[in-house]
Amino acid sequence: MKSSPLHRRIHPLTLWLLAGLLGGAASALALNQPPPGFTALFNGQDLAGWRGGDTFDHRKYLAMLPDQRAAQDADWTADMRKHWRVENGELVNDGNGKYATTEKDYGDFELLVEYRTVPLADSGVYLRGCPQVQIWDYTEKDKFPLGADKGSGGLWNNSPGAPGKDPLVLADKPFGQWNSFRILMVGARVSVWLNGKLVVNFANLENYYDRKTPIPPKGPIELQTHGGEIRWRNIFIREIGPAEANRILERHGGKGFKSVFDGRDFDGWAGPLDEYQVVDGAICCRPGKGGTIYTKDEYSDFMARLEIKLPPGGNNGLAIRYPGQGDTAYVGMCELQVLDDNYEKATGEKIDPRQAHGSAYGMVAAARGYQRPIGDWNFEEVTVKGSKIKVELNGTVILDCDLANVTDFMHNSAHPGKDRTSGHFGFAGHNDPVCFRKIQIKPL
Fold first, then answer.
1. CA-CA distance, 355 to 364, in Å (whole number)?
2. Residue 303 near residue 382 (C-beta atoms within 8 A)
3. For strand 290-299 and strand 423-430, is the pairing parallel, antiparallel, or unpaired?
4. CA distance 297 to 382
5. Per residue in 115-134, pLDDT tens?
6. Which candidate, 276, 272, 398, 404, places its Cα nearest to that of 334?
7. In CATH, what is the architecture of 5-246?
8. Where are the alpha helices (DSSP H) in 165-291?
9. Does domain 255-443 have CATH number 2.60.120.560?
10. 442: part of which helix (H) or strand (E)?
């Protein structure tokens, strides 16, 4: 599998760092000193910034009462400190105990880490508290049926056959040598390089604790270990901001998409166009205006990509297979809701879960909590195949449903258009200045 263009465009400083690590150039790089743009998670001297952790649902951890969470932290950390030590600038675990877990939670990031382990050991790196980028003995024949012979770096807790579960290539170094990871995570999308080789290419990290629910938007980094000594050093992280995250998402899998908006005018669009305006290369609903504008072209099965920016309490929608007239939420296949995730707080109005952002309005609820802060652009990808719809927001799948199976409708309102097989794509405005840009469609 070939990497995307972004994967080939690594910053020269990152390449320089990795070259030094892979070559063991200790004289060129100070141990545990981060390269530009990165922060050291391990200071080389003590366990500052780390607590104990376990294989534990981070959402349940955050839902604990403060005193309960403090007690759990104290218990895990006491056990962790019995088995972890710092030695010659290396973070060493004896093969037992709770996991070294960052006190801080992270969203999108680039992580660099080196490790050295021993035969029969088993370990891994938890991302946002979810297991795991696998580390194990690739020569242990007893574990070949589990995939050990394929090497380290895979997302081992993904479902059997799922992308990323097994590494693309065997990249482990012989025992006694240091291995290096570069891990890039945007939304639930994870890419892993082991010793400079791409072993996981933009795969979705499944939620081990509940596979029907996406992984948390933020969580800790955990160094998991059991079965044998493992040493860690040069653990660096760089948090990725919204604009860079969107570029990463845009550059992956873009083949076949064509722009349906030139950033200048409404050529190719129809509907109440005077209710909208073009502002800085984006289609924006005029304040106090609305209605559904749509592409003149019709689509059956397709993918759409676009960026969305919302004002506080903003409300709009994506018209899917719209017939060109009527309320797209009912006469079209569906309206995929575009709504401020904090709509209730911003407006004081309570909503049905099937009205949240990304939901098939009134029919199927999307997962919440994956929107960027107000004022930032969100990257959204929609896939429509037959009666199935999938919505990926900022790298995380928040809706994956089959409308043919829907029998329960909000307010018992029928959706006569939900079984439509083709129609227009557009925007269903509701008085708020919601904006859309970089609008692309790929017929399937």
1. 9
2. yes
3. antiparallel
4. 17
5. 999 999 999 999 999 999 99
6. 404
7. Sandwich (2.60)
8. 242-251
9. yes
10. strand 435-443
Spatial separation of the C-alpha atoms in residues 29 and 437, rounded to whole Å = 43
Residue 148 to residue 128: CA distance in whole angstroms: 24
Q: Is the pLDDT of residue 377 over 70?
A: yes
What is the rounded distance in angstroms from the CA atom of residue 304 to the CA atom of residue 284? 18
- Letter for the amino acid at 419? D
Interval 214-228 mean pLDDT: 95
238 closest CA partner among 197, 203, 186, 199: 186
32 phi-psi bin (left φ>0, alpha ψ -120 to 50, beta other): left
- Sole residue written with tokens 């509701």: 430
List CB contacts of 320: < 8 A, sequence separation 6 or more: 328, 332, 333, 334, 335, 336, 382, 384, 389, 423, 425
- Give the C-alpha separation, 88 to 319, whole Å: 60
User: Residue 436 and residue 215: Cα distance in Å, rounded?
Assistant: 26
Q: Which alpha helices (H) appear in 183-341, and where do they start and end?
A: 242-251, 328-331
| pTM reported for the whole predicted model | 0.92
Displacement of CA 328 from its chain's centroid (Å): 29
Q: Which of the residue ranges 78-82, 250-254, 433-437 would you say has the lowest mean pLDDT?
A: 250-254
pLDDT the model gives residue 375:
94
CB–CB of 380/439 below 8 Å?
Answer: no
In angstroms, the CA 189 to CA 443 distance is 23
Residue 381, pLDDT above cutoff 80: yes
Token digits of residue 318: 């994506």
Q: Where in the chain are all domains bearing CATH 2.60.120.560?
A: 5-246, 255-443
Contact in structure between 171 and 197 (CB atoms under 8 Å): yes
The number of beta carbons lying within 10 Å of the beta carbon of residue 413 is 10
The tokens for 319 are 């018209």
In this prediction, residue 226 carries a pLDDT of 87
Mean pLDDT of the 91-119 span? 97
Q: What does pLDDT average to over the chain?
A: 93
| Closest by Cα among 309, 249, 245 to 283 | 309
Angular region, 329: left φ>0, alpha ψ -120 to 50, beta rest: alpha
Q: How far apart are CA 292 and CA 329, in angstroms?
A: 10
